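Minutes, project check-in

Agenda point 3 was the complex the collaborators sent over. CS summarized: four entities, 440 residues total, and the question is how they sit relative to each other. Sequences were read into the notes so everyone works from the same version.
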Amino acid sequence: MTETIGVLVVDDHAVVRRGVVAYLDALDNVEVAGEAANGREALDTLESLRVRRQPLPRVALMDLMMPKMDGVEATAEIARRFPEVRVVILTSFGEVERIQAALENGAAGYLLKDAGPSEVAAAIHAAANDDVFLDTAVARRLAQKMRSPQSGVAALTSRERDVLVLVAQGRSNREIATELVISERTARTHVSNLLGKLGLRSRTQAVLVAMREGLVAPPS
Amino acid sequence: MTETIGVLVVDDHAVVRRGVVAYLDALDNVEVAGEAANGREALDTLESLRVRRQPLPRVALMDLMMPKMDGVEATAEIARRFPEVRVVILTSFGEVERIQAALENGAAGYLLKDAGPSEVAAAIHAAANDDVFLDTAVARRLAQKMRSPQSGVAALTSRERDVLVLVAQGRSNREIATELVISERTARTHVSNLLGKLGLRSRTQAVLVAMREGLVAPPS
DNA sequence: CGGCGAATGGGACAAATGACGTAGTGCCCG
DNA sequence: CGGGCACTACGTCATTTGTCCCATTCGCCG
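CS then shared the predicted structure for the full assembly.
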């Protein structure tokens, strides 16, 4: 572990990249190996390092919610094509669904943007060590989610999640039916069931829950 | 203008504060006068400086979307109680409604977080000079909004906006009526009218528009 | 003063939504 | 193999939502 750890910083906000780099510069055995503004750029950077036979960074510090390529997607791609690179998520969103998605896709850590320098350092060292680091708040939420499998989107069947996503896009039952190639009655059954499971009384509330759980992106 | 400009950095994300401070440190006649993690802290800091008869910062660089006290609120408070402090907004959200709200509440600038150091510098100098600096993208959106007054929340009456906000919280017509102390029929009239003005066909879509326009915060 | 838009409500009606019960089919797991 | 679950679908019914009329009351503005 006395070896220097190369870190690729991926965030669409220049200010955030600057802050992260400032954190990393203060660390002894960590070196910023590059910056990228989105998932696509990050992959391009890694690819280009590989063809030049230059060493890949050990860790990628990555935002979720980026243009071009979403953090979750990018994490999955990196895990698939560059398995020696550990991905640590650094984001302002603490949605359990996103956290789970990221971890399932191979993320080796999850930090919130209000993390201090020491937490970032800990996450990077953990990742370089093939451990997983979770922000305290993140870990707590995950634990809560585990403890209470009854409340929340996790209780939904995959089909119900499909329907919920469409509801959260403002579609009517008829439109949902057409989209999923089922009858409107079935769509209504799914909506009714998911409302029941989530303890809601209208599809309007379902939109909010879907947003809160990160099932759909907030509209831009 | 050779005088040093004091800047108060307000953001709930430590990483972002660090990045901004790094930007500011690189500038000659700018000095970081303090940091705060939310609007409340920012006001407390200013208040405490005032009672100690210490000089107030000329500029506050502030995020929107913070816990404790929202950026728009904080901007209004600062403009009211500390008129000598110029507030520059630095946020990742480009919603026209929020921009307008911030500017109407006395903001002296609006930057997006993908802004580079030079833009931050320009905004601070402009603010210290009693000018207003707008990010290029922000200015463009504002201009678009001005050019097309027909589409968008701007066409709504204030009462309709009230109703829309409640719709976007998942309330039923009956609940909205109770909340606003009007009859349910009137609530329905308002909903119907605002749907027409926005070109929508259901309240579910209205939720999305309200979010997109920043009329309500995305649920946490 | 006259008009105009905003806000308030009502009647009537059509459409969408949601709840509840029932049921066939397919699939996985013990 | 049998039970359970997900997915599909329908019938019925109550409620909500949304539309199109209309009317009244303000307050503001020319």
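Noted in discussion: Residues 157-160, 182-183, 185-186, 189-190, 202 of chain B lie near DNA strand C (CB under 10 Å from a C1').
Follow-up: revisit at the next meeting once the mutant set is ready.
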